[in-house]
User: Fold these one by one.
Assistant:
Number 1:
Amino acid sequence: MIDAERLVLHGSFTSSSSYKPMLFLALSGLPFSFRTVNLKNGVQKQPAHLALNRYGQVPVLQHRGLTLVMSNTILDYLARATGRFEAASEQDKWHAREWLSWENDAITNVARVRHFARFRPDVDPMIVNYFRPSAEAALDTIDRSLEGRQWLVGESCTIADIGCWGRMVFMAEGGLSLDNRPNARAWRDRLMAMPGFALPYDLIPKKDTEIAGRS
Ligand SMILES: N[C@@H](CCC(=O)N[C@@H](CS)C(=O)NCC(=O)O)C(=O)O
């Protein structure tokens, strides 16, 4: 029998978009089921997966009869459904979602640089170089915004932090770094010190897995 209360996340270990909800769940210590989607073999474009995600991408979250796609929609849902990593005030709740919209415009350039550098050696380096200044600018914005602050919104970690960090996590694979961005580096270290934190290759399983969660 299907347990509608059980969270089911479909994703891939090479995917920053999958890492974002995966990190939320790991930091929350919630139990869930992970279903791997092999992007290299094109499983995301096969009918069974397209029935869940019409864009032919990961991640997908299933919960209580709902099917949700797009990593930031999933983070929004998880914050609402669990109350975890939600900002304290109404204003800050919207502010956190504003960061998620911004990251989808701006930090996406970090993911693009990494994508072409890691997966598309066949593509003209001009393509990577086109996205690189926007990627660097996004990292600068994060660093500047964290001046004198611990978290992007309010006084605690929210979906804004998880979403922004999650999409930039593979930056080193694109030759990007936080080395000259001390506020962003301290913020990353703060996230890394949280119980349940792990980097994607340690966190996201390569096969279907039942995750027990922590109490
Ligand atoms: N805007 C989407 C982006 C999702 C996305 O780009 N997923 C990538 C992995 S990070 C994917 O599934 N790529 C495989 C493909 O497009 O065929 C989100 O935030 O969820």
Note: The CA atoms of residues 79 and 88 lie 12 Å apart.
Number 2:
Amino acid sequence: MTLKQIGEFGFIKKVSRGCLIRPQHIIKSIGDDAAAFTTDLEEISLITTDLLVERIHFLRHAISGFELGYKSLAVNLSDIAAMGGTAREAFVSIAIPEDCALDYLDAIYDGMKDLAHRFDVNILGGDTTGSKVDLIINVAVHGTIASDEMMCRDAARPGDIIYSTGFLGDSKAGLHLILNKLPADSENLRRLIRAHLQPEPHLLEGRFLAQQPGIRAAIDTSDGLSSDLGHIIEQSGVGAILFADQIPISGELRSFCAQHKFDPVEYALSGGEDYTLICTMSPDKADAAAHNFQKCFKRPLFPMGKIREKKGLEIVYPDNSSTAIISTGWNHFKGE
Ligand SMILES: [Mg+2]
């Protein structure tokens, strides 16, 4: 079967199966002119949207349909996680080139539904159209959060401890393996590639952090530690110091970097798309929060630096040398 044979409406009917995961409060899902759902007025609504364009964000031959669908939704869920919210409804718009097989499209929706199931998110609609050359996917997600729990980028204060909810730099190593067509012949390397193709949105971690009494600012790591922490310090009007030996680097990234003579700290600073959460926590409540995080998730909340009054971002190495760092993360318009 091809897309031409089933047509746009046949395609929508086909992919809409299994999209309604949480029918409570949903009045209309896919099939009417607009989705309709009720929300609780005690809550703040969060909306985020991400556009994934072939050859800019992904290479169709280097990613399976399942992984592409999974990642398109994951990056949006990560933005809801960064605010501390609960993801609720998703909308998927897709521009399909003629050479895109129906099986590949089906797999995109399978990947999205797999993640949607795990995080209890409905897929409620979107738009479908043709494209001359590239496959383009836009996902928008609606989430909610209690009005006194929202985490923003502008709330860091001098003295705060800076944490990450997971390892940094793995995704960049995975991308390096994919772009250079290096064989993923060990579980270590496969894990790095998975970190790039199927990042785990830290929604539960975001909810946990939002409920900690000492929480201040938060962001997800989509562009790289230096760039994402840069947003926090810039918007909070503060500076930060990072301790190179505390930046969380996985064993997999360490051995990858040792083999290829790369610097793992540089990977963590500049590599994007890890989708961990970076947060800052008031120093008197930080230890308790980190302790509870370990208890709850069976892995550490990694402390890696401090917020300070002096502007700018500085990294200190174990030999006490230090360097000022400028954002080196991904910038679509610089053609990096
Ligand atoms: Mg973000």
Note: The mean pLDDT is 93.
